[in-house]
Amino acid sequence: MAIVDSILMELDQEAKTTQRVLDRVPENKLGWKPHAKSYSLGQLALHIARLQGALADAVNKDTHEIPGFVQAEAGSKKEIMDVHIESTAKAKQILAKMDDARLMATWTLTKNGNVLMSVPRVGFIRAIMLNHMYHHRGQLSVYLRLLEVPVPSIYGPSADENPFA
Q: Is 0.90 topped by the overall pTM?
């Protein structure tokens, strides 16, 4: 089994869970924020939806320069769901072409030409492309709870959903 096979299996499984969480986003609350410094619900959901494809694009190069970043506001729940499907497919397509040597090769992140990190590509995929998305998905589940939206099962039962019952 190649390294990428386990990454693709995880990406596939987690995309299904992410889709369940994104599906709970209430369209009439996209502009809601839990705090003035927080992303709105729509911004966070769209960020999660875009993350996999955007980061796969970045890691596909040997060096990536961090661009100026402003998170867009989602226009609709349909946009969020469509972007998630497209982004996941794009990530899977890019990653599927990477062999073990490419995954273990050094990948560099820069800002204004200054090196922020140089790590094996697989390390960036694990820490940022995957774990970073899980972090934001956890934030989104808190947003849902604060909005009194039933939280779906993520890794087991939630207070609202028990797939084992």
A: yes
